[in-house]
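[audit] Reproducing an earlier prediction to check determinism. Same input, same settings, fresh worker. If the tokens differ from the archived copy the diff job will pick it up downstream; this log only records the rerun itself.
[audit] input (777 residues):
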Amino acid sequence: MKQIYIVLIIVLMSHLTNAQTWYNGQVKNDQNSPLAGVTIISTKNKSKGVSSDGDGNFRIELDHPEVDLTYMGYKKKTVVLNKNLNTIILEENTEALEEIVVSASREEQKRSEIPGAISVISAQTIEKTKAFGIEQLVNQAPGVYMSTSKAAGNEQHMMAVRSPISTKSLFLYLEDGLPIRPTAVFNHNALLEMNDVSFGRVEILKGPASSIYGSEAIGGSFNFISKNPTPEFRGSLGFQMNDLGLTKYDFEASKYANDKLGFYLGTQYVQRNNGPVEYSDYEKFAVTFKTIYHIDPTLTWTNVFDMINYRSDMTGSLSQEDYEAGNYESDQTFTEREAQAFRFRSTLDKIWNDQNKTSFNFVFRNNVMNQIPSYRIRQFRENGQLTGEGSGEVNANGYNSFVGLLQHKIDFNFAKSSLIVGSTVDYSPQTYQAESIEVFVDPTTGINTGYQLNDGDFILNYNADILNYAGFFQFEINPIENLKITAALRYDGFDYNYNNLLDEAGPKDSKNHYHNLAPKIGFNYNLSNRSGVYANYSNGFTPPETSTLYRNSFVGVGGDVFDLKPSNYDNYEVGGYFTSEKWKLDAAFYVLDGRNNLVTLRDENDEFYNTNAGKTRSYGFEYGITFRPVPELSLAYNGSYARHRYITFYEGDIDYSQTEQPTAPRSLGNGQINYAPNFLPNFNIGLEYEMVGKYNTSFENQIVNTDGTFSTATYDGHNIFNLRASYQFADFEVWGHVLNVFDTLYSPRASYNIYSKQNTYTVGNPHAFHAGIRYKF
């Protein structure tokens, strides 16, 4: 009997020893500032690990309370957690500890294991920047330029990453590693469908990432990672305003309700009235709700809901005379854009054992965009004089998406190797309608004063079902200690089923199929724990957009859809990094060769149309330098130098081969000086410098001069300075920005109009003040 009791006691002790316990904590530096992205891993079970969130908080379930904490620039620390809230202070170190990123494979990886150029906008940077626009965040990354009409201030934008400033589908926008829009329904303004209040971190992977994410990941993939619940109840209430007519209200709340279930809520309302550019009002409401449910120690269920409601005037561009004279009156009085976006993501993460884990993902998207686009307005003339009449359109585009993604990772017991395999299916039925309008024009001022809908006069009316199916794998291995080799391959298939609902307009019904096999191979060689080099080859692919394919790419009413070809890109890249206590350096050289790139041109009726552009080549150098001479002072400069050329391209009988592409600045730069003095805790002041180099706005030698010679229209570039400061006291934080300190006239993007024979411009911020206050609880 005694032996039975002993056995029972041993079994009970073993059960208690293996019981899982939840531990909560917060990680800070020695200046009492929270550290986001700190890796917390069990010392007994290396598969048990989490990262701290934007407030430095973490939550981890363990059967043994001892953990290791690592963070780049700080000493590794081993602590034994207790059941109360653990506050852990990390000490700075001269050694370069690794930063953890997730965007290269949808799995957590050390930066030194990624054979590519990746930039991280950390939670601390987001907090410090106090951005009132997404461009203020992403433009801090080397080689990234998000062009937005800041004076119009309505979040509509273009992008340039290893490419000219354009509206093309060369960029992939992700939320928590999943695209916010389906392939073939790209919108260059898609970031207005995001809620920037919910950003806990931004990771920008430059160059083609089609082997993991699929098409449109050409110039760069922007992964906006949402905030996680916090162990204790936390939140904030904020208000911002500036003298450009903008006001913004935001609210956040977060908490783990118990040991298993946590939630995050982030919402904002933005309004813009009476800005410096006439007819540029806009309103936006956005809300993000996220739940994380730890069903058991090996199974986590995450759900994210996003809802965006947006409306904006569409100002249009300014003529060269109005731009230079400071006359920001708009020719438009009724053009506008409305967007409603709803996204739901549900993810189950299952850890089978120390070597196997699976992620099951389902995404539903519902999106509607209605607009009277300013770029479709045409004014009629006779003998060069306005007639008082014009034309335009009202259009509506909507889709639903049903997406499934399955990804599994296996860690092997040899050479630190691992294999990721996955598949995805995205079914997105789409509708599109466009009806013509009669435009009324004031012939003395050129202002479009009103319009009348030509009810039933459809330009286009169609349904298009889009099916994208794909399979992919990525294999990693360390054949020797400091060398990691990564190889990946993805197959994508696309089926478009186009159904024309009209007899008198548009191409006839058609089915279009595209496919691609995208390989990637690269290596990392770490010279030390503070420096390394890498190289890679990767392929990128993007099929034609449905709006491009079915609008102007056909011959006659009821004709066949024009055979637009998919665009394909090969990227060759080498780079390296170095980190020390005072320095952080990153550099990358790349060559991006494109085939069948799509370009937008205008025909003899001043209508836009798209065509494949033969071959192009972009090549350049991207670099980031950060210097911290003392802990309280940081100096950083991120920049790029690039050339973007047509290798072979003909427009009709004109040969533009071996010429520069338009709207392609050679130089981009962003500088930051930040100072947080020890004698004034919780105060920070920073100076920002933005540089965009000179670029062509027209095709080379497109302009015929009066003497018969040819020339090229250009934009001279600009240099802008912004100043910001913030101070935190008790539970309040206040901040202020001085925008465009020297009141420089500049344009975020300039282009050439072949009919007016001059540049047209959007307008950047004039000298202005922006202020905000936030209460944290």
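[audit] rerun output stored. Observation attached for the diff report: The CA atoms of residues 506 and 551 lie 7 Å apart.
[audit] end
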